[in-house]
Amino acid sequence: MSFLLIFLIAAWAGAQNALAGGGSFLILPTLMFSGLDARAANITSCVALFPGQIATGWAGRTHAAGVAGLSLRALFAISILGGALGAAILLLTPSSMFARLLPWLVLFATGVFVWGSFFRKATRTAGHIGPRAAALAQFAISIYGGYFGGGIGFLMMAALTLAGEKARPASATKNALAGVMNAAAVLIFLFSPELHWPQALATAAGATLGGLFGVGLLHRIDERALRLAIAVIGSALTVGLFLTQG
Fold first, then answer.
1. Neighbours of 226 (CB within 10 A)
2. Distance CA 52, CA 155 (A)
3. CA distance 166 to 112
4. Which of 84, 140, 146, 219 is deepest in the core (most CB within 10 A)?
5. Residue 118 DSSP one-character state
6. Are 243 and 106 in contact (CB under 8 A)?
7. 142: which residues sit within 8 A by CB, 6+ positions away?
8. Cβ atoms within 10 A of the Cβ of 190, count?
9. Residue ranges covered by each domain of the chain
10. Over the stretch 205-240, which tens digit does the pLDDT of each residue have?
11. Minimum mean pLDDT among 60-69, 109-118, 155-164: which range?
12. pTM of the prediction?
């Protein structure tokens, strides 16, 4: 029954990711409910969601691009290095410490999601930050992505548009970069004993099917209402995690 629950919640999360993002707010607590500790759940979730991220990045690869003074290849290299560093830091973080950090990470991810969904305005003018600042921002985001990853899409959209990219290529670029940074993390997590393959496979299957279903609903769902629901879920999860610590 726990694997069936994981599959069904992952399918919901996959559809949610295809429509508006925020699926990790559902998958992480579900894996923890199945018996995994916080760090193991985070590692398993990262590996399970990786195939869908690669598929999404590959589908939009023709629109991905670098920013002024910083090629796409350079952004890839920065993302791989940062993702690997973040994953290594996670494995060096004691499980008990990560459990204490988790509510704050979810709080940050929820705040980023709310900001990106309801308050951030896309930049359509010339870049406001130079290539060095853009490279530093992407490196920092990649470390965070390898360590936890909640809200990285909105963070990358903000950084890329501030560096001068328009919304459409920025969206494709952040999808490609998300897959690249998580590839580095996944290669490290594959050798971790905290990767639970049964839960990972159930999550991957559900999220993939849900994502395909979600793509078909893109023009039928009120996206703003969905984003509001995700914000509520993230807020509830944050409160719940803080209460369990108390």
1. 19
2. 19
3. 20
4. 146
5. I
6. no
7. 78, 79, 80, 81, 82, 83, 85, 86, 177, 181
8. 11
9. 2-245
10. 998 888 777 766 656 667 677 678 778 878 888 888
11. 109-118
12. 0.82
